[in-house]
Amino acid sequence: MLDEQAKKTILRKIPHGLYICGVRDGEEMNGFTASWVMQASFQPPLVVNCVNTKSGSHQKIKNSGVFSLTFLEAGQKEVAQKFFKPQQRVGNKFADMEFYEGETGCPIISDSLGYVECRVVGSVEHGDHTVFVGEVIAAGLHRDGEPLLLESTGWQYGG
Ligand SMILES: Cc1cc2nc3c(=O)[nH]c(=O)nc-3n(C[C@H](O)[C@H](O)[C@H](O)COP(=O)(O)O)c2cc1C
């Protein structure tokens, strides 16, 4: 039988960064705070991005087959805080945020370390998050710096 408490405690020890996943579907655009992200292949370059099936962004990634990941710098906790609120509730999260559209059309936050843009090449739809496997088709650097880590925020997402 699964020891729920042990599972929760040990899984929360997986280190995570914090990213803003940018999505676009036709004229519609959005972004959300993502932490379940990691590199998954050198060649071709792949990343995995696990997205809550109930989030507004999930359907947009399914429809368009693309997403971006903006890499936040240590100290940018307030940006992550803004983007973990659902668009359905707070409206346009990019309203007072400087951003530009990448070659996928997905939004990229200008004030950040950099970004990758991905085309979805596979997915696992099994649990409450879909595991999207994205091939990195574009990347850019904005500045050098240390990444924002989930651990530094005192927040939990996992377990
Ligand atoms: C610290 C933290 C990490 C998060 N990581 C993820 C994640 O990896 N995947 C995900 O789907 N949601 C994650 N979320 C939740 C989304 O940011 C949240 O559901 C958001 O409201 C979705 O926005 P949307 O409905 O506008 O798409 C995280 C939230 C927090 C606070």
Word description of this protein:
With about 160 residues, this protein is an alpha+beta fold. The protein has one domain (about 15-115, about 120-155): Pnp Oxidase, Chain A (Roll). Helix content is about 20%, strand content about 40%. It contains 5 helices and 9 strands; from the N terminus they run H-E-E-E-E-H-E-H-H-E-E-E-E-H. The protein has helices spanning about 5-10, 55-65, 75-85, 85-90, 150-155; strands at about 20-25, 30-35, 35-40, 45-50, 65-70, 100, 105-110, 115-125, 130-140. The chain has a 7-stranded antiparallel β-sheet with strand order 2-1-5-8-9-4-3. The longest helix is centred in the middle third of the chain and has 9 residues, at about 55-65. The two termini are about 15 Å apart. Flavin mononucleotide binds next to strand 2, strand 4, helix 2 and helix 4.
How is the secondary structure organized here?
Blueprint lengths: L3 H8 L7 E7 L2 E7 L2 E5 L4 E7 L3 H9 L1 E6 L5 H7 L3 H4 L8 E3 L5 E3 L4 E12 L3 E13 L8 H4 L6
The chain binds flavin mononucleotide (FMN).
Flavin mononucleotide binds next to strand 2, strand 4, helix 2 and helix 4.
